[in-house]
Amino acid sequence: MNEIDEGDDESFALPPMVGKIGEGNIEWVSLEAIDFELLGYFLSCHLIIEHYLDSFLKSFYPNLKWKKAKLSFAQKIDLLTTMWVSDDKHDSIPALKHMNSLRNKISHRVNFSLSMDDLQPMVYFLNGISERALHLPTPLRILRVFTTMVCVSFAGNISRRARGVP
């Protein structure tokens, strides 16, 4: 066994990033503070919401060639904007757009960290649809509740379409 394959298999360690270079020196930036579990969960939430969004759109237009169109998440949300009639209180579209902007940041910045502030548009949506004050103390809880509520909303609409209920 050599040094490359030794170490803790339970950690999410990555090599450091190259920081400032100059005057014969190089700065190495550690990535140890990144919560890879949270970022992975966030990306999984985004993917499951996109799955429900795809199914919702297909339930309205089943004969379109959806795979061939290769629509981005943002383009699908733009289509949803014309179909999803809702008042501001129950409108998940701003939070979905914000979620997608966070996903783009995660995808292009290896040192991106999610904060409670980053998730406020999701909290705003959840508080708007709730009849009582919600206890959302962590990013994981916010993501879980937001993802569940958005998917439930899509699922209800998909189910009504499948049963022929307007």
Summarize it.
The protein has 166 residues and is mainly α.
Please give a structural write-up.
The chain is mostly helical. It has one domain. It is 54% helix and 7% strand. It has 6 helices and 2 strands; from the N terminus they run ββαααααα. Strands 1-2 form a two-stranded antiparallel ribbon. Helix 1 (36-60) packs across helix 3. The longest helix has 25 residues, at 36-60. The N and C termini lie far apart (64 Å). The model has no long low-confidence stretch (mean pLDDT 89).
**Gyration radius, to the nearest Å?**
20 Å
User: Could you give the count of β-strands?
Assistant: 2
Query: What profile does the largest beta sheet have?
Result: 2 strands, antiparallel
Overall pLDDT? 89
Termini gap: 64 Å
Strand order of the largest sheet: 1-2
Helix content estimate: 40-55%
Domain count, please report it: 1
Q: Note the beta-strand portion.
A: 5-15%
Order of helices and strands: EEHHHHHH
Give the overall shape, derived from the CA principal axes: elongated
Poorly predicted runs of 5 or more residues = none
What's the number of helices? Answer: 6
Structural class: mainly alpha
